[in-house]
Amino acid sequence: MPLIPDRDGTKFVRDTERNRVLAELTVDAANGTGLSLRDRLFSSKEQRLTALMLAVMEDHTARILQAIEAKHAD
């Protein structure tokens, strides 16, 4: 299971906590406080890009699977 940085960027949390962490980061960004999510993920540009691409792919895959499950549930 993938790990992502917590709100403070001091430890990593399981992907199951992803939505909570992303919500907190969104609030921090809106308030102009804390580090950006990009800066918390990884140090190099390549690692940041890879991590962000994987997060987007995971999100799209989850949405596709939910749509398929909903279609077959009918």
Describe the 3D structure.
The protein has one domain (3-73). The radius of gyration is 14 Å and the shape is extended. 65% of the residues lie in helices and 8% in strands. It has a two-stranded antiparallel ribbon with strand order 1-2. With 74 residues, it is mainly alpha-helical. It is built from three helices and two strands; from the N terminus they run E-E-H-H-H.
Briefly summarize what is shown.
The protein has 74 residues and is mainly alpha-helical.
Question: What's the end-to-end separation, in Å?
Answer: 30 Å
Tell me the quaternary state: single chain
Category from helices, strands and their pairing: mainly alpha
How many domains comprise the coordinates? 1
What Rg do the Cα atoms give?
14 Å
> Total number of helical segments?
3
The count of strands amounts to 2
The average pLDDT value, as a whole number, equals 69
Biggest sheet layout: 2 strands, antiparallel
Write out the strand line-up for the largest beta sheet, numbering strands in chain order: 1-2
Order of secondary-structure elements: EEHHH
Give the low-confidence spans.
none
| Overall morphology | extended
Strand content: 5-15%
Helix content: 55-70%
Write a concise keyword list for the protein shown above:
65% helix, extended, mainly alpha, 74 residues, 3 helices
What is the fold's blueprint, element by element?
Layout: E1 3-5, E2 12-14, H1 18-31, H2 37-41, H3 45-73
